[in-house]
């Protein structure tokens, strides 16, 4: 009977040892499984979405012309790309049906003329506020004295068109800039002389 007891005790010790060994293997496997994703180079899914995709379906050239005037420099200043809704906010779902919810930019001036829409100075400042959100007045003043003189009198769109093949004025040579000034001033000067 002593041999049977000894055999049972050995078998129980062996069973207990196997259970502890199996548990330790399981614990090591869990540790490796937890550390594995961080140590291995797994594919990480990131969302790459063009925020302007829907706009570009109809306004095909707008993205390219915007990049010409608001490309690298804007990206460096803002730390991101400029997209349509940065300037044309309030784009509603019914925009495609001609709803007037999109902010549009057009030429206007505070003095009567024949070519441009007349707006009071406060409305012109409001119209220019979207541009001034990024283009600081101090920087504009340094780049050209004309910004101070025309801030309340003209919308930015009179001289700047960011969706032209070459951004209006930003790419003009000196002669072309002078011609733009002369043409505009001649327009309302002539109208005032006629009165």
Automatic annotation (TrEMBL):
Please provide, in alphabetical order, the Gene Ontology terms of the cellular component aspect for this entry: periplasmic space
Task: Give yes or no: UniProt keyword Signal.
Answer: yes
Q: Which Gene3D superfamilies does its entry note?
A: Cytochrome C3, Flavocytochrome C3, Chain A
> Which Pfam family name is an example for this entry?
Cytochrom_c_NrfB-like
Highest taxon, organism lineage: Bacteria
- Does Signal show up as a keyword for this record? yes
Q: Which InterPro entries match?
A: Cyt_c_NrfB (IPR017564), Cytochrom_c_NrfB-like_dom (IPR053875), Multihaem_cyt_sf (IPR036280)
Q: Which positions fall inside the Cytochrome c-type protein NrfB-like domain?
A: 84-184
Q: Please state the span of the N-terminal signal peptide per the UniProt entry.
A: 1-29
Assigned keywords, A-Z: Signal
Which molecular function term from Gene Ontology is one that the record holds?
heme binding
Q: What is this protein called?
A: Cytochrome c nitrite reductase pentaheme subunit
Species per Swiss-Prot/TrEMBL record: Vibrio scophthalmi LMG 19158
List the taxonomic lineage: Bacteria, Pseudomonadati, Pseudomonadota, Gammaproteobacteria, Vibrionales
